[in-house]
Design brief:
Layout (H helix, E strand, L loop, with lengths): L2 E4 L4 H5 L7 E4 L5 H28 L3 E7 L3 E5 L1 H6 L12 H7 E4 L12 H6 L4 E10 L9 E12 L5 E10 L1 H16 L4 E5 L4 E5 L1 H7 L3 H4 L16 H10 L3 E10 L2 E14 L2 E10 L1 H23 L4 E5 L5 E4 L1 H7 L3 H4 L15 H12 L1 E10 L5 E13 L2 E10 L1 H18 L7 H11 L16 H11 L4 H8 L3 H15 L4 H10 L15
Antiparallel strand pairs: 1-2, 3-4, 3-8, 5-6, 6-7, 7-8, 9-10, 9-13, 11-12, 12-13, 14-15, 14-18, 16-17, 17-18
Helix pairs in contact: 14-15, 16-18
């Protein structure tokens, strides 16, 4: 009896790397029982080959297939599966589960080594089928950084015979290396990006990722965001074009930058939000990025309040005050006190050049003040004469300080009218001069007070009196008033020349003078001529 069983490979089978036995035949007379068993085996082989053929067609050209027999281990693999393991023959896969494990190290995407019982081959041979097991494969003989590696997405399937019994297993392997590495790069960028961001899944509009910057900005936790829908955590609240933004979100279109307010546990936070659609694998997402405008909004509000306070203080200052451009000294604004004292309206003095301002009595005064302000940044009590709208000339003290307004260097000028004070001082000095023409009946202390009054407008910080001098200094001053030189004083008082010079220097310092003649004038202004001063001569 001769039995022919055909399991011929088609051209499509060979295209996918699958070659089946051409013809299996029996031509010797054998017992019927043996014939029956042989026929059943060949039929099972044909059925298994047809199942494997269907599996190859389902897998397509982009997937690798490894066939495993329960008793024989790895018996076949297509070229794609070999390439995904960086080998060229089935034998290099290790043939058995233990051999495969000895050659290849598998790790999860978290970097943990896969235990031996969880290797795909071990799971299949234990009767467990599975889907989408993602693992990184490396050669155990070279696991250094930069060595070969490949990320596999593996699913395990069983092949059955005509009676539905499992006869063998197949591993279907998809190369997802590029996708996983791109996702890893995206994750690293997303987590370390300084810009606050969240990722929303478009299928159900729930948040799936949030970076630390967003949590820091809002004060929320990861649990407060991930898993919630865009309707419960509304990141587009108060957006002027919210309806359009929601429509674009549902359609998976980009969302233009728009202002919004995030509702937080403690009030709201102003942000600018934009959305960019992204794809991760087969899933579609929207990446929302945020710009925190709350600090700038608060700064603007604080600046606005400061400006309002400055304007109010400027207007209410009781002395004439001017705001001018530092370069060119063009007046920008004047306060009410300026209008009251000088009589000019705002239109009379603002927006005019330095040379056309009617206020300066001295044509070059404004230029001189501008130069001084440019060098020092501030001025204090500069004497100037200013002309009022009525043609009256006022003696004034001018102080100025540089400040920046709207990125322009300006000067805040304060003017104090001292005309009345100077007039009173002049009248007092005239009276003092009249009285001192005959001062013989005044005591020395009164004369000194009057002399100090006469010089009080001097910029010097302190004017000494005769009472500040020691007895020896008074003796030397008396001789100076009599016209004696240092050498004559040495002979008169029996002192050394250096001692006399030191006393003279101290007299200069206390009187705030710099010459012998000035010291004599200073003494005579105080009624001290030295004529009647008794000297304590040193013993000869």
């Amino acid at each position: 009896m001769v039995v022919f069983i055909t399991a011929q490979s088609s051209a499509a089978d060979e295209e996918h790397g699958l070659k089946l036995g051409a013809v299996d035949y029996i031509h010797k007379p054998i017992r019927p029982a043996i014939v029956g068993r042989r026929v059943r085996n060949l039929v099972d082989l044909a059925l298994r080959n047809r199942a494997l053929k269907r599996l190859v067609h389902l897998a397509g050209l982009g997937e690798g297939i490894v066939l495993i027999e329960p008793n024989e281990g790895i018996v076949w693999a297509n070229e794609k599966a070999l390439a995904l393991h960086n080998v060229s023959t089935v034998h290099e896969l290790g043939q058995t589960p233990d051999g495969y494990r000895d050659r290849f190290l598998l790790r999860s995407l978290d970097g943990d080594d896969v235990s031996s019982q969880h290797y795909p081959l071990a799971r299949l041979l234990s009767g467990e089928c599975f889907d989408n097991m993602t693992l990184e494969a490396r050669r155990r003989d070279n696991v250094s950084e930069g060595s070969w590696s490949c990320v596999h997405e593996v699913r395990g399937q069983a092949l059955v015979d005509a009676q539905g019994h499992t006869t063998s297993f197949a591993l279907v392997i998809l190369d997802v290396t590029d996708r996983v590495r791109a996702e890893k790069r995206f994750d690293q960028t997303f987590d370390t990006d300084l810009a606050p961001a969240v990722i929303c899944r478009l299928s159900d509009l729930h948040y799936v990722r949030v970076n630390q910057s967003f949590l820091d900005m809002t004060g929320l936790t990861n649990e407060d965001v991930v898993g919630r829908s865009i309707y419960t955590l509304d990141i587009l609240a108060h957006a002027p074009n919210k309806a359009e933004a929601i429509e674009n979100l549902r359609a998976g279109h980009a969302i233009a930058r728009t202002e919004a307010k995030l509702q937080l546990r403690r009030g709201t936070r102003s942000v600018i939000v934009a959305g960019q659609p992204i794809d991760v694998g087969d899933d579609h997402y929207m990446l929302f990025t945020f710009t925190d405008v709350e600090p700038s909004r608060k700064a603007e509000a604080s600046l606005r309040q400061s400006e309002e306070r400055f304007v109010r203080a400027f207007r209410l200052m009781p002395i004439p005050t001017i705001l001018a451009v530092r370069k060119g000294f063009q007046f920008l604004d004047t306060n009410d006190a300026f209008v009251s004292v000088f009589g000019y309206t705002e239109a009379d003095v603002t927006a005019k050049s330095r040379s056309t301002l009617p206020i300066w009595a001295e044509p070059h005064a404004a230029y001189r003040i501008e130069r001084e302000l440019e060098k020092t940044g501030s001025l204090r009590n500069i004497e100037v004469q200013l002309i009022t709208n009525r043609g009256e000339t006022l003696d004034c003290l001018l102080s100025a300080e540089t400040l920046e307004i709207a990125e322009e260097q300006c000067a805040l000028i304060v003017i104090q009218d001292v005309s009345e004070r100077i007039r009173s001082e002049v009248e007092l000095m005239a009276a003092i001069e009249t009285v001192m023409q005959d001062a013989s009946w005044f005591s020395r202390s009164i004369i000194e007070k009057l002399a100090n009054l006469r010089t009080r407008s001097s910029p010097r910080s302190h004017i000494g009196e005769l009472a500040d001098l020691t007895g020896r200094e008074l003796e030397i001053l008396a001789l100076m008033c009599r016209g004696l030189s240092d050498g004559d004083i040495v002979k008169e008082l029996g002192l050394t020349r250096n001692t006399v010079r030191n006393h003279v220097a101290r007299i200069y310092g206390k009187a705030d003078v710099h010459s012998r003649a000035a010291a004599v004038v200073w003494a005579r202004e105080r009624g001290f001529t030295g004529a009647d001063y008794k000297l304590a001569r040193a013993p000869r």
